[in-house]
Amino acid sequence: MLMNRFLPLYLCLLAAGSLLYSCEPTQPETPLNAEARHDAANALEGLQVAEGLELTLFAAEPLLVNPTNIDIDARGRVWVCEGYNYRMHLNPGNPQKEAGDRIIILEDTTGDGKADLQKVFYQGNDVNAALGIAVLGPKVIVSCSPNVWVFTDEDGDDVPERKELLFSGIGGEQHDHGMHAFVFGPDGKLYFNYGNEGKQLLDKDGQPLTDKFGREVKAGGKPYRQGMVFRCNPDGSGLEVLAHNFRNNYEVAVDAFGTLWQSDNDDDGNKGVRINYVMEYGNYGYRDELTGAGWRAKRTGMHPEIPKRHWHLNDPGVVPNLLQTGAGSPTGLIVYEGSLLPERFHNQLIHCDAGPNVVRAYPVEKAGAGYTAGIVNLLKGTQDDWFRPSDVCVAPDGSIFVADWYDPGVGGHKVGDLQRGRIYRLAPPATPYQVPACDVSDIAGAVQALKNPNLAVRYLAWNALQQAGEAAEAALQQLTADPNPRLQARALWLLARLEGKAPQYIQQALQSEIPGLRIQALRMARQLDAAQLPAYIEQVLKDADPQVRREAAISLHELDPALIAPLWTQLALQYDGQDRWYLEALGIGAARNWQACFDHWLAAVGEQWHSPAGKDIVWRSRAEAALPLLAQLITDEHSPAEDMDRYFRAFDFHTAPLKDQLLASMLQGQHPQQAHIRATALRHISPAYIRTSSQLKQVLNQTLAEVQGTEAYLDLVEKLELKDQQQGLLDILYAHPNEQLGLDAARLLLKLEGESLLKKQIYSGSDRQKKALFTALGNIRSWEAANFLEPLVMDEGLDLPTRSLAVQAMANGWNGENRVLELLQTHQ
Predict the structure, then answer these.
(1) Which of 556, 551, 582, 558 is nearest to 567 (CA)?
(2) 56 neighbors 93 (Cβ within 8 angstroms)
């Protein structure tokens, strides 16, 4: 029974139309229809398969449930991480396995292509909802934030004798954005990643880890942000951060040349899912590089399309995306280097996206220093939207296996089905699952195994050949003559590791006619012969292939900063003014000594810096000497407004005192677009600098009057934190309560401590003003607005119509209905 004093709140709820979700339940599916549609016996009927492929069901419930990640060992067995206990704290009504989640092994012992044997390799609450598994000989690496576990099964009985920590302290426990799977690279290293909830990486003893430059591996902008990609030795030593600033980079894939690929999820609902070529040391733009601000934060020159604005693609210092695929929930990714599938899938990326219920290939083609890609579906849940592909893996016979989480949703925050899970196999029609023998006991067998498309087989081969040392050299040399460049690449990685042989085989790769091998040569040099890296770079400074020169630019990042400038200048002089990949590689190469690189280039290029290519280099540079040139470009009478904004944005990435002085110098002038220059320059000058000058304050007030009531006015007020403009913001709110302009004004009023002014209007304003105010506050859908509105909802001093408006506004915000209902329940 409600107490009488809270009856007005209840009436407000009714007036606002706020209802419990359970008041209007959806009609349940007819049980028979639902059961038939979701029964494993009918699993294949709801899936559409690409031409030239046949889909078979390898395993289904009750052999497994909720597969989050899979790997396939050298015997062709499928290892599965189950996620039955997924997000337990957010799904308290779901049953749980008290013993914890399982790592299971599924095997086909009869040769009919269907799993008939299940083994539990490990079960425990320390692997609840693990998101990654890698089977590497006797070791099994399981990724489960906050830890990475290494299980060791030396005697091969599928029961681990040891469980040891590899890394610890990782964020994202029971979160999709935590630690993901490890993969074995062609260089003998481990590659892995975590999403933006990972935040840090500690060693097995809980001590902070640093990268090769002594920087702590930790999000927060010094220098790393958000999700990251890593490389390390098999024992966890030699850790490197290869790229950063992703949102939820779910799984990294590495090809034979050592090129890295990833997918990444957007902030859900923005159609910005992306596929990335991972340029080493690259910033991938999920957050503002310097401030950490999100993509919604206003900035000069932001991309007009939200899916691209989402990744700060117009900012200098952000590596481009290979492909944007729209809305989705991307998961597992591989590079298919087998030959069993139709040729159009050879050497291509194959990827799972659980959101649109699809497994795709992305045929990649070279484009300057970067790449372009298309989309080809392999498997699509056209008639079954519970198909949720969570991972894809290559088997030793070259077929691919797809794990299906199978659920009405894609995870994220909850699980809707705990009884099902499937593993499918894709292969050409009438191709039985026959696993080739893997015998690495002699060199011939190990070389044959090195050719296999399955990573577990290649791991065994790689280690056997490395242990054989010079005895394997002749056989590996023979493999470098194979018509398949990717097999040549695998052999060269091993040959370069032979004692004292790195220079010989790096040189052999550098002299190859295949650009991929010349790129690999520089990667091998960075790992194995760093002292001679400058000499190797010099050999490719004029390479005809821009991708090789791109790799040379990236390699400069690792040199002694004093050696970089002359080499960098030669690469920069070949920039064509159009290739963003090349430009960002130049930025990576100069990052540790921008000033010397820029000065050397400027001396070489002279007045030609004003070319399209030179303007781009000025825009990308972080050298103080670039600032006067940026100012010249902005004030050039021939510069269109969009180019001005681009150059103004570049100012944001400089911190030298000269920056504010140059911006202030632009406030007076006779440029045809002087008003635009003045308003934009004021937004980029630091508030502290403006406060030091009465003349600047006068110009600011003049400009505010000129742009009053516009978006430019809001931008100035926000950037300069002008708390004395609250009345101007309120006027905009009243004039545009249902438009973005009014919503931004309301948001700014809360940000700039305008609550007292807002309350004054609520208690003494007209009905029209109140309605406009509550409309805007409700539509901005923020916690700040809800916190402001909640006391008004409960204020018995306000009349019922005003409280009703407050309830409607509050219920319109993030999780607003639930919050209003919680108030009602709290005060019963």
Answers:
(1) 556
(2) no
How far apart (Å, rounded) are the C-alpha atoms in residues 684 and 75? 61
Residue 400 has pLDDT above 50, yes or no: yes
Q: Which amino acid is at 68?
A: T
Q: How many CB atoms lie within 10 A of CB 819?
A: 18
Q: Retrieve residue 823's tokens.
A: 């108030």
Q: Cα 331 to chain center, whole Å?
A: 11
What percentage of the chain exceeds 90 in pLDDT? 81
Nearest-angstrom CA–CA distance, 684 and 650: 10
**DSSP 3-state assignment of 140?**
strand
Closest CA to 459 of 142, 239, 185, 180: 185
In the three-class reduction of DSSP (H, G, I as helix; E, B as strand; rest coil), residue 474 is classed as helix
- Say what the pLDDT of residue 806 is: 84
Distance CA 633, CA 652 (A): 15
Q: Give the single-character DSSP code of 130.
A: -
Pick from 594, 588, 585, 539: which is nearest to 565 by CA? 594
Tokens of 165: 């920590």
Listed in sequence order, the residues at least 6 apart from 451 whose beta carbon sits closer than 8 Å to its beta carbon are: 479, 487, 490
If pLDDT is split at 50, 70 and 90, which confidence band does 251 have?
very high
Which tokens is 226 given? 């958000």
Cβ atoms of 435 and 76 within 8 Å: the answer is yes
For residue 342, the SS3 value is coil
DSSP letters along 664-677, please?
A: HHTSS---TTHHHH
pLDDT, tens digit, 9 for 90 and up, residues 44-93: 999 999 999 999 999 999 999 999 999 999 999 999 999 999 988 777 77
Are residues 46 and 57 in contact, defined by beta-carbon separation less than 8 angstroms? no
Q: What is the DSSP string of 43-78?
A: GGGG-EE-TT-EEEEEEETTS---EEEEEE-TTSPE
DSSP letter, residue 435: P
Residues in Cβ contact with 23 at an 8 Å cutoff, skipping those fewer than 6 apart: none
Residues 6 or more apart whose Cβ sits within 8 Å of residue 764: none
Torsion sign (Cα): 731, 733, 738, 741: positive
Q: Are 807 and 792 in contact (CB under 8 A)?
A: no
Contact 525, 506 (CB under 8 A): yes
Structure tokens at 579: 């290739």
pLDDT surpasses 70 at 12: no
Structure tokens at 481: 């003559």
